[in-house]
């Protein structure tokens, strides 16, 4: 259990690296799924195009949505987008940065699936076999006597070895379409790589200050949420512990009074220290309604991002001494204190 807890804490502290690893695993999984997938073209004019294009587009959409589901920052982004403004303004630039970061990671697995599918060429062949002109690939004298509908049915059978009798024409047509599919695959990889280069390298060069600002505050929002969850977890643990202790103490007190037993010795110093530490973790919040109010206030009106400056104890004491004794010359308010004047009567004698 301790090993799993340590692993979970490590993943929480290295969430960005963990999400990059998840994206890499999803990319490898998409390629492995395609290699283990049994491709079965229907070889019918009505369904070839739908099956081929569907296999090329639907799994990437599923991988893209799965990337959003597995990313923990999606809930944080939604919460930041929908929360009331309160005392803290929402920065759309930070939200856009977070959304773009999530989207970039989620696009890795779909890009791998599309590139592997295009390199293999089976779905491309299944989708576009009905658009071929068989006269380019060999002797097609038998095809001229067929009607248009029969030609379409014959062309739809090219991806299927068992249904197309003319092996030479089928092999030539398959190689032609697979060559086009592989060219589209390399072009797709080139475009995706170029876009990734533009996003990752060129954007920070032009807007370095804005990039650093958005990156800093996106990290702050993530860390603040984690620390708030940890503080709530510690408070809930201490609240439950103190509540259970008080319950058992009240029950034991009633039992002792019922049986007329004398009170047991006071708890030792270690137990008392643990009790005080649990009491300190409650931070003065000792009722359910108070905790609900704290949580609601955190959601509806988060504290502003302007910290109060706290002076050290030495400066506080010096300030208090100055207020008590006066300014630097020791006089209150810079001048001598006012003292009530006394009247003196002086008598002179001539003797």
TrEMBL record:
Q: Where is the composition biased (Basic and acidic residues)?
A: 272-281, 307-322
The GO biological-process annotations, alphabetized, read as:
ATP export
**Residues that span the membrane, as ranges:** 21-37, 49-70, 183-202
Compartment(s) = Membrane
Please give, as recorded in its UniProt entry, the membrane topology of this protein.
Multi-pass membrane protein
Q: Which residue spans adopt a coiled-coil conformation according to this UniProt entry? A: none
Give the source's domain of life in one word.
Eukaryota
Q: Which GO molecular-function terms appear in the entry?
A: monoatomic cation channel activity
**Its family?**
Belongs to the CALHM family.
This protein's name: Calcium homeostasis modulator 1
């Amino acid at each position: 259990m301790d090993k799993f807890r340590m692993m979970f804490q490590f993943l929480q502290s290295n969430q960005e690296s963990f999400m990059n690893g998840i994206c890499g695993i999803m990319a490898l999984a998409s390629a492995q799924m395609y290699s283990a997938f049994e491709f079965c073209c229907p070889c019918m004019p009505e369904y070839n195009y739908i099956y081929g294009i569907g296999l090329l587009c639907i799994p990437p959409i599923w991988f893209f949505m799965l990337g959003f589901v597995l990313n923990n920052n999606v809930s944080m982004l939604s919460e930041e987008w929908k929360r009331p403004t309160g005392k803290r303004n929402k920065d759309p630039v930070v939200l856009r940065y977070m959304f773009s970061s999530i989207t970039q990671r989620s696009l890795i697995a779909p890009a791998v699936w599309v590139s592997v599918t295009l390199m293999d060429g089976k779905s491309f062949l299944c989708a576009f076999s009905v658009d071929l002109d068989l006269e380019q690939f060999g002797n097609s004298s038998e095809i001229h006597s067929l009607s248009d509908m029969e030609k379409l049915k014959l062309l739809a059978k090219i991806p299927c070895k068992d249904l197309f009798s003319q092996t030479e024409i089928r092999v030539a047509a398959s190689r032609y379409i697979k060559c086009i599919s592989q060219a589209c695959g390399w072009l797709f990889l080139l475009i995706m790589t170029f876009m990734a280069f533009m996003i990752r390298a060129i954007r920070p060069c032009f807007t370095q200050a804005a990039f650093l600002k958005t990156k800093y505050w996106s990290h702050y929002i993530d860390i603040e949420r984690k620390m708030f969850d940890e503080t709530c977890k510690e408070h809930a643990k201490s609240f439950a512990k103190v509540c259970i202790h008080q319950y058992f103490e009240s029950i034991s007190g009633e039992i002792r009074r019922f049986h007329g037993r004398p009170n047991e010795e006071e708890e030792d110093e270690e137990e008392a220290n643990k009790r005080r530490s649990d009491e300190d973790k409650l931070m003065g919040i000792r009722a359910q309604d108070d905790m609900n109010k704290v949580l609601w206030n955190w959601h509806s009106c988060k504290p502003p991002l302007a910290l109060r400056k706290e002076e050290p104890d030495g400066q506080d004491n010096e300030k208090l001494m100055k207020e008590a004794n006066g300014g630097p010359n020791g006089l209150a308010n810079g001048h001598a204190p006012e003292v009530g004047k006394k009247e003196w009567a002086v008598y002179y004698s001539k003797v």
